């Protein structure tokens, strides 16, 4: 297959992976980010098809189209940064506004200065680079670290004309676009396979035995909280996970609970069979997790309701 056709195929794969990701993340506030990723992939597929058919021969038109795609490609990252109920729905309007602002130089070039290259301000160039790096850092310490690295590398290659210190002239090289699209597609596919085939489970304690991720009716079980917390870490990344841990640990310290939430899960000190504090601790943890996930999702990932 010629390099001009590879980006289109890769974009279709990314769109399919984004739809699968939306299904796997159903019940969480990460679903809008998956739909933004699907929209960006579709936009890139349209751009790639237009290039392959010779519809985008003007370098200025190519640059404007790529900038519009770049604006959509950064929306999933921005969407995750506001993924907390109840404002996560309204946050999507902010994400859409961001996409419009990032694509404004392309619209300005097409409407005000036809035939000219989009003039991307250096502040916007650094901001776009920062968003890609934020998305990478959000998942680099999770199981999806490899997938996040592949996606970030592909995004940087696709946005190379609009990043700091990049050359602003000349059309994009088809081979570089094909390599970039392949990186993003591979990262998206790896992330979906990891989430589908190897869902996050409970943390293995120091004794080497995996704690059962079950919460029976009416009985507080910290292992269930641990499993749901780890699953949410893989879904939303480090930013919100660390925020949840910070809020939980503040309450735990004030109430004297012998447990703390860390990035790698719930750490319990003292006698694990002491249930005097467990009901309140699990209830507090669930209240924090429900800002990001539905009760059905929590049951499904805490060991209950496998068919939910």
In short:
The protein has 308 residues and is mainly α. It is 63% helix and 3% strand.
Structural features, described:
This protein has 308 residues and is an all-alpha fold. It folds into 2 domains: 6-197, no CATH class; 222-301, no CATH class. The chain contains 12 helices and 2 strands. It has helices at 6-24, 31-52, 59-73, 75-81, 88-111, 122-139, 145-158, 174-197, 222-236, 238-255, 278-289, 295-301, and strands at 259-262, 265-268. A two-stranded antiparallel ribbon has the order 1-2. Strand 1 and strand 2 form a beta hairpin. It is elongated, with a radius of gyration of 22 Å. The two termini are 42 Å apart. The model is unreliable at 203-220 and 304-308 (pLDDT under 50).
Tell me the helix content. 55-70%
- How many individual domains? 2
Q: How big a fraction of the residues is strand?
A: under 5%
Low-confidence stretches: 203-220, 304-308
Looking at the structure, what is the overall shape?
elongated
Number of helical runs? Answer: 12
What is the averaged pLDDT score? 84
Q: SSE order in H/E notation?
A: HHHHHHHHHHEEHH
Sheet of most strands: 2 strands, antiparallel
Class by alpha and beta content: mainly alpha
Number of strands: 2
Q: Radius of gyration over alpha carbons?
A: 22 Å
Distance between the termini: 42 Å
């Amino acid at each position: 297959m010629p390099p001009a056709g590879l980006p289109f195929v890769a974009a279709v794969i990314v769109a399919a992976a984004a739809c699968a990701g939306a299904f796997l993340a159903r019940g969480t506030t990460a679903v809008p980010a998956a739909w933004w990723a699907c929209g960006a992939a579709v936009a890139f597929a349209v751009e790639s098809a237009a290039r392959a058919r010779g519809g985008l021969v003007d370098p200025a038109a190519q640059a404007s189209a790529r900038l519009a795609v770049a604006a959509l490609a950064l929306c999933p990252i921005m969407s995750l940064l506001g993924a907390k109920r109840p404002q996560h729905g309204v946050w999507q309007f902010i994400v859409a506004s961001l996409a419009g602002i990032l694509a404004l130089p392309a619209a300005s070039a097409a409407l005000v200065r036809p035939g000219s290259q989009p003039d991307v301000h250096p502040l916007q160039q650094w901001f776009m680079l920062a968003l890609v790096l934020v998305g990478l850092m959000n998942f680099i310490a999770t199981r999806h670290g490899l997938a996040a690295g592949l996606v970030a590398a592909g995004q940087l290659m696709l946005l190379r004309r609009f990043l700091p210190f990049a050359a602003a002239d000349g059309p994009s090289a088809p081979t570089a676009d094909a390599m970039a699209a392949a990186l993003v597609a591979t990262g998206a596919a790896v992330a979906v396979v990891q989430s589908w085939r190897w869902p996050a489970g409970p943390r293995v304690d120091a004794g080497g035995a995996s704690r059962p991720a079950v919460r029976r009716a009416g009985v507080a079980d910290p292992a269930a909280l641990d499993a749901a917390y780890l699953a949410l870490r893989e879904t939303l990344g480090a930013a919100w996970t660390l925020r949840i841990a910070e809020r939980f640990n503040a309450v735990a310290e004030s109430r004297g609970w012998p447990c703390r939430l860390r990035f790698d899960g719930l750490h319990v000190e003292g006698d694990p069979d002491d249930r005097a504090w467990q009901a309140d601790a699990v209830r507090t943890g669930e209240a924090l997790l429900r800002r990001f996930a539905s009760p059905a999702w929590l049951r499904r990932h805490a060991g209950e309701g496998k068919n939910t």
